[in-house]
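Minutes, structural biology subgroup

Action item carried over from last meeting: produce the structure token record for Exodeoxyribonuclease IX (Dyella thiooxydans). EB confirmed the sequence was re-checked against the source entry. Recorded below for completeness.
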Amino acid sequence: MNATAAHPPAHLVDGSLYVFRAWHSMPDEFHDVDGHPVNAVHGYTRFLCELLEKTRPERVAVAFDASLTSSFRNAIYPPYKANRELPPPDLEHQFVLCREVTAALGVTVLIDHSFEADDLIGSALWHLRGHGISSVIVSADKDFGQLLGEHDRQWDFARNLRWGPEGVHEKLGVLPNQVADYLALCGDAVDNIPGVPGVGAKTAAALLAHFGSLDALLDRVDEVAFLRLRGAASCAARLREHGEMARLYRRLTRIALDAPVTDHVDGLRRAPVDTTTLDALCERLRFGPLTRSRLRALAD
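Output recorded by EB:
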């Protein structure tokens, strides 16, 4: 029996992505009882309500980043994500409130100061797979492609696009088990990972299609010069020069599967909602009647 037949899939949400989207898209006209801006909280709450209304998941978790400067990747490679500005204090405060809203709805919050949201989602997915439960990763981030097994799906919620392992190949030109190698080769500007100079996305995909993995490519780098590849000789030279850095970059691009998350089969089930806590939170955040009614319906 396959995983999808035995259990409904768990939904693992890239929470930080949707908080940032709400921050950028919601007008700055929402304030809590103390006068602090809560536009991102209002937008994120609407997103979370819609997700829970559509899916009614048995198992669900939302992962948040708390490790922009303290991730284990920063110790390996200090420039990692150094191009990103830290969230302003107003947004930092709203992240805390978004976690409160999530927990108040009985949804598990995943957060850690050494592991990123990607790692928490990857580790949760890995444990669930061990119990025969598939996962839907709710995110638009291409990095998650490396996690998708036969029965797993990724869901870009805003665009309502879903894909499985085949979709990873359609988007990037590589298989899920090659995504970390691919990003190590061509780099990832969003995370400040330079990759191998002169190796773009198409070249990286072509090299992995031929050699299968970064390790095989570097072990057989002398063959690269003879490939039907534009600038093959210079590509081989760059791979010789930067090969060890590419292996280092792969330690950054590979999602960890050993982050501290529950490995219990029921660890991510929605918990009962304390309506008193939820109502008090609605008062503090000055939610309107529509949002309040949606939250109360979800509490039931």
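Discussion: The radius of gyration is 21 Å.
Next step: EB to file the record with the rest of the batch.
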